[in-house]
Amino acid sequence: MESAAAREARGAEAPRQPAPSPAPSEPPAAPRARPRLVFRTQLAHGSPTGKIEGFTNVRELYAKIAEAFGIAPTEILFCTLNSHKVDMQKLLGGQIGLEDFIFAHVRGETKEVEVTKTEDALGLTITDNGAGYAFIKRIKEGSIINRIEAVCVGDSIEAINDHSIVGCRHYEVAKMLRELPKAQPFTLRLVQPKRAFDMISQRSRSSKCPVEAKVTSGRETLRLRSGGAATVEEVPTEFEEEASRKVDDLLESYMGIRDPELASTMVETSKKTVSVQEFARRLDSVLGEFAFPDEFVVEVWAAIGEAREACG
């Protein structure tokens, strides 16, 4: 029988081989840095090209453009994407394609017109720039305003009867105009955008546009929000585009305004609800300042449902 001493001696003759050291692991991959979002911009009436970045909402965007060209942010009435013309189908709303070119339309001449309201509706569709200026997005053919040659699409409404409306939202301005009494003249003080030479004779009028033009050119867009930081998102789906278009049409029909970003927000809100009652409650919590009437909310819910069915 082998003694413990012999076993110990044999173990000393054949020492245990050390375990191989593990292969060095690869360092963890660094998170992919998001590229800087730099946008090209010009003044619509003509200027060198500037570059802007680092904005999260429309007011900051205007401040960056103003800084690039040495002007005050309040000089900017609105912006269009990929066109220097006063083209309301190219109007900058809440989304900018990552390759879009931004044209800023600045204050031009001020003019005053006297209007007599002979019908309930003036034939104006109002929108705003998100930074304090409401302006004319559409003029209905055959309407009261259509017969006044001095009033043009793109004109900013600065005052009604010498009462300044700078800082008012589009729906507030539309409400003021609706509530003006019939057969009593009133005065509009308007500011037209400064125009390039090739735009001097332009006077755009439209009662209805078949579809708002899609201005995004890449697969992603920068979405500007009135509250919170801007986010880079995929371009809207077919359903989101169709539903937003339907809601924007209803906004014009009920309230006399066009606002693709507001329409988009309402569509987003609908995704989190399963009934029209829940949808109405969420709208009140998110967009309570608009005080949407119940029949309008029901029509919006139905329109979004129709868009969802149509797009599968």
Q: What does this protein structure show overall?
A:
This protein is α+β, with helices and mostly antiparallel strands and 312 residues long. It folds into two domains: 38-193, Roll (Pdz3 Domain); 236-311. It is built from seven helices and twelve strands. The chain has helices spanning 4-13, 58-69, 170-178, 238-255, 260-270, 276-287, 294-310, and strands spanning 39-43, 50-52, 76-81, 95-97, 101-116, 124-128, 134-139, 156-160, 163-164, 185-193, 220-223, 231-234. Strands 1, 2, 3, 5, 8, 9 and 10 form a seven-stranded mixed sheet that branches. A three-stranded antiparallel sheet has the order 4-11-12, with no helix packed on it. Helix 4 (238-255) crosses helix 5 (260-270) and helix 4 packs antiparallel against helix 7. The termini are far apart. Residues 1-32 are annotated as: Disordered. Residues 17-30 have a biased composition (Pro residues).
